[in-house]
Design goal:
single chain, alpha+beta, three-stranded antiparallel sheet, 4 helices, 25% helix, 24% strand, binds zinc ion
Length: 178
């Protein structure tokens, strides 16, 4: 697995216009030419179409890199989870699995059980609330070494940093199987 992590985003990913301080910036989780998930920061003229199914949110561009880490917006993470239920990017199983575990830990989703289908394992989940929803999401085998790069990739995608307490532990990943 390999991906490029862009640290500096000082211009629109579509029209290349340089952002100015406090300018409204739209961050969207889209897919690149290889159909892999990427975050694109866009100016107000390049907003994704409303029916594109792309998850996006607004920020204000800061010329000075903020020292304080941005907290993860779990509602945003849930929107990504739901969008990827409909059309998952290529090679996103591990990422989706991590997102699922994070959402279970935050009680946005309830883990029901682990099911096997055609030799692959999936988590069966329920979203509590008035509009109860059921989901099936891939549960690939991850080693502890897989987690740091996966976490870095997710933090980059959703533009936020997880607190250690928010991260899934080994017991979260085995809870479904026990
Ligand atoms: Zn633009």
């Amino acid at each position: 697995m390999e991906w490029k992590i862009e640290r500096i985003r000082d211009r629109c990913a579509t029209c290349a216009k340089v952002f100015t301080h406090e300018q409204r910036v739209i961050s969207a989780i889209a897919t690149d030419e290889q159909q892999r998930a990427v975050r694109r920061d866009l100016c107000g003229n390049c907003v994704p179409a409303a029916d594109s199914g792309v998850v996006w949110w607004e920020t204000r561009f800061q010329e000075q890199e903020q020292k304080k880490k941005k907290k993860v917006d779990f509602d945003r993470l849930l929107r990504v989870f739901e969008a990827w239920q409909k059309s998952p990017p290529l090679d996103s199983d591990s990422l989706r699995y991590l997102i699922t575990l994070l959402l279970v830990r935050k009680r946005f989703l309830k883990l029901i059980d682990l099911v096997s289908e055609e030799g692959r394992e999936f988590l069966r989940l329920r979203r509590p609330g008035p509009t109860e929803q059921w989901y099936l999401t891939p549960a690939p085998l991850l080693t502890p070494a897989d987690l740091p790069p996966l976490r870095a990739r997710l933090e980059e995608l959703i533009d936020g940093s997880f607190d250690e307490v928010e991260l899934p532990t080994a017991s979260d990943t085995t809870a479904a199987t026990s």
